[in-house]
Amino acid sequence: MSPLNGLNLAFLAALLGACSPSIAEPDTTGIEGKARAIDGDTVAIDFRLLGADAFERKQWCEMASGCAPCGKAAQDFAARFLARGPAMLRLTGQSSYGRPVAIAEVAGRDLGEAMIRAGYAVPRPGFLDHDPDRRARYLAAFAAAQEAKAGAMMGQWIDPAKWRKGDRLSCERERHTSRDWQQWRKEAD
């Protein structure tokens, strides 16, 4: 066999090795959290965002013309944000409400910061003491949302932590709205 044929065989073997599927070693670090089945071979685990506390899905806020579902608007905002592309979740090693805590980014943009800036979440700076840059960005985003009267900041709202404990606005207790929420959401976005 000539040296050239030997190199061709070595190159071909390397190429085939690089192109053939391999079985990767499983990642054994693991993630622990409450899981749910999407279908028979797809499982999802919910994550909580680090340092951002969004309005709860069933939470309402009071606007000039009535009660509006700011929690549903927050959920819709997060869904639209996540639909922009693949999400990068960085686990913090913390847990909240039985769920792993993570930082979520899409195309390099921080979901927590975006939620706060859009007026659909409030910052929790006490959870960001170890990350002073993120803490400053979240507090600046909150000030900007308040200044712009973005999202729920255009009206009255109950802090999500207090809402989870049972506090409600009077319009929530009355359960009637005087405004189409789709119109409110258009104005809020």
TrEMBL record:
<protein>
    <submittedName>
        <fullName>Thermonuclease family protein</fullName>
    </submittedName>
</protein>
<feature type="signal peptide">
    <location>
        <begin position="1"/>
        <end position="24"/>
    </location>
</feature>
<dbReference type="InterPro" id="IPR035437">
    <property type="entry name" value="SNase_OB-fold_sf"/>
</dbReference>
<dbReference type="InterPro" id="IPR016071">
    <property type="entry name" value="Staphylococal_nuclease_OB-fold"/>
</dbReference>
<keyword id="KW-0732">Signal</keyword>
<feature type="domain" description="TNase-like">
    <location>
        <begin position="29"/>
        <end position="155"/>
    </location>
</feature>
<dbReference type="Pfam" id="PF00565">
    <property type="entry name" value="SNase"/>
</dbReference>
